[in-house]
Amino acid sequence: MNAPGEHNLAVLAERAFERLGDYESLFFEGKWLTSAEIHERSVRVAGGLRAHGVRPGDRVVVLTSNTPEVFISYRAIWRAGAVATPVIFLQSPPELRHILSDSGATAAIISPELAGLFRGAADGLGITTFVIGENYAELEAGEPAGIEPRGDDDLAALLYTGGTTGRAKGVMLSHRGLWESGRGIDRATRTTTATRALLPLPLSHAYGLIVAIGEWHADRRHVFVLQRWFDPAGWVEMVAEHRLETSPVVPAMLPVLLAQPRGDRDLSSLQYFGSGGATLPPAVRVAAEKAFGVTVLQGYGCTESSGVVSTETMPEHRAGSVGKAAPHVEVRILDLAGKPVPAGEDGEICARGPGVMLGYWNDPELTAQTVRDGWLHTGDIGHLDEDGFLYVVDRLKDLIIRGGFNVFPRDVEDVLLEHPAVQLAACVGRPDAEHGEEVVAVVQLAPGQRVSGAELVEFTRARLARYKYPRQVTVLDAVPLTSVGKINRKAVRDLVRAGGGDES
Hints:
The chain is of the alpha/beta class. The protein contains 15 helices and 26 strands. 30% of the residues lie in helices and 25% in strands.
């Protein structure tokens, strides 16, 4: 039998356990799990998967809220040589049906609260199903399994993009790509002394997945406190109770945490936040650093890059940037003609390296459009400065063209977030007969705050160029977000074009 590849994720996990030993490593809902317990359960689950017919290369769906079984299942799936297919738990039945059918999954591991949703969506597909707390025990009763050989470029994970602009696409990620991205995260965290982290992110998203893999590269014992899902009141409580030092977040979480009452809870143990998944408005970064006494380290990546392109570190961080390219990544900025642009000039962010996806599942045409000559075309606009720091400006597809002038939604959103009453903001273009597109925005106010849309229009008018400021700002009870906390621009566009919300 051939040996596993050098970057096999199951080998990485096993070596981490051998190197760091047994200790209390994961706290979840009142109970500690040791690293030995997690390792031994994963070895048995791998054997259980094999006994139930899962073969190397088979796709195994993981549809759960955050639980310890997510960590265990990922390890077991890779140990069995199968392909982890994480699915965000906030899916509609048609979206889930598409993912299950498109992936050709043979098995699934699900939370009991999602069993009804899953069974309805999976009807007739013949997927062997294991429910945590129910027949998942059958997997744990399996004989301990060794590591199935898989090459560095073999498929390790199939992640489906959010589908906010169309049907979700399966992104194929290799063992080496995820291995290298995990090492990129670990190298950034090594510039801090923090070892105790709160995980509120869905582990079924690329960002959460890479944070978990990063632990296996660590030279120190790391302790994780896991939230089933993001609970801001619980977040404050857990940080204080367990003296936690860091927490990976997406930008939309920070305004919610800033508004959360703390009472007499001591959060002074916090050292830094890792922020990724979307651009972080400067006003939110400044407010978070001041309120929590932390440094916010930003990173940048996308599912198609195995989650990591660039990271900030404690020694190297610069206001407004998302850090320098990770060691395994090359970054260049191209104009619309595909030619490199000088430092400081905006263009499309492109990345090359082992983290670039193997391709889109069952879609070679879209793969060829997105990855050209080994370079991933991210669809994001940004620039590099003279020192190699990367700055993300906006999504190319979100660009608003008003009367021939380019308007980046983020420029408008950053100004709106400077207003003390605004908690979240989203800017989009609305079709307009005179200007082609008109700049409009929606906002969500901080608790207890009141301000009218007209007042916010005047606020931005005084701070933005004439062609940039929004002609309409609509106050919403809640700005639409995706299941991973990003602004759902498709939903915002649909809303403003339908005239929803309150402009008063």
